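Co-fold these.
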Amino acid sequence: MAIGIKISLNEGLFQRDPQSTALGQKIIKHSILLIDEIGFEAFNFKKLAVRMQSTEASVYRYFENKHFLLLYLVCWYWEWVSYLIDVNTMNIEDPKRRLEIIIHTLVSASQENPAIEYVNESVLHRVVVAEGSKAYHIKDVDEENKVGFFLNYKQLSAKVATVIEELDANFPYPHAFASTLFEMANNHIYFAEHLPRLTDVKVQQGNFEEVEGMLKYFAFRLLCKNSG
Amino acid sequence: MAIGIKISLNEGLFQRDPQSTALGQKIIKHSILLIDEIGFEAFNFKKLAVRMQSTEASVYRYFENKHFLLLYLVCWYWEWVSYLIDVNTMNIEDPKRRLEIIIHTLVSASQENPAIEYVNESVLHRVVVAEGSKAYHIKDVDEENKVGFFLNYKQLSAKVATVIEELDANFPYPHAFASTLFEMANNHIYFAEHLPRLTDVKVQQGNFEEVEGMLKYFAFRLLCKNSG
DNA sequence: TGTTCATGATAGCAATACTATTATTGAAAA
DNA sequence: TTTTCAATAATAGTATTGCTATCATGAACA
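Predicted complex below.
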């Protein structure tokens, strides 16, 4: 996997670019691990500082508060998925095949070889599955949307919507179905693990094949009139 | 609308049953309004007490903390939807018609005539749309699930799954699709209002017809082979 | 060599999340 | 009627959280 890919994110998300310094990278690394361990509600900058052997004040120099840090991590994740989709669908013409690859990538992004040493992609995936929706279910969603904090997610969604439109030009809900694919992928992984009666798929030891199968079933039953 | 319907909820959700006293009902009423106004993160028992002209300590006698209060409200909402679905599908045999009614009820539950004076159903609906997923995206989800806090939602989901199975006995994901319907209904209302590029439907002044149309389109395209 | 700038160390303050104690009230029970 | 009892109000208090300010240190760099 390429070393040196740089995930570029909206500058308003942080006070100082955490990717550009050793301390910033430590913040990213340990915040992922700590949120995964204790959950976003119990997580705070004091605990993070202790864990990474730094100080609360130093963390505040990078992120305004823990909400922005979570949003940063979530954006990072979607940007990473977006990058993987681009790489994996490069030179693939057939839209059906493209959508298959998109779904596969979406579900298995966390198992790709680590690209960046300070981000444990598979732990980050767990964090996004468990806490990701809190990044946009906030009172200030409109202000934050206005300044572009959700652009990554919207662009990724638009990219997938384009493929859906290619596949079935008459399908009336391409954007909705694109975002539903993302939401379903994460939701059903969470359900399988914690509320299994809300789904029909099983997940064990990071094996998400059944989720992938389900998403493909939904996609091709909705979009392809004659395909199994 | 019937007066005196009683929403019955898991007793572990509260310290003292809020439906049984005037103060408890005031807590329900004002917490819905206040969470809607300032969002769940900014909401706390001190502000609630001031708003309802009572004291913090009194609120704590009903709910252990604000998480349990939110969970209570969410459970209340799903129990209310469940009740409406039962009433509306009573004596309807055709499973296709039943599913149509379920989807309609799901989307327009908030517009039913108020049944209980201390609950503003349409504000509660906004709260569930905006904050509902925080009720189960928590570190203690497994413990809370074990003691039955999510039973309402799971039973409702099971109820809908049954109809899906009647409609298409070979459909392999009835539970997943049932919960997806609930999640989509709320998500796309939220998207339409705050992140419109993530959906294709429009919502204005509490008119959710386009959401309803979309859910029906998904449902019948997935489940009925010949109903375009 | 002096300046700049990131970080560490420490302190502090206002708000939050609760708990405890006592007083009051209003309704049920005797 | 009086007693008693439970629910609530009033008040206070503690530990933690969320965040800011200040100053010292030490590396980079001009």
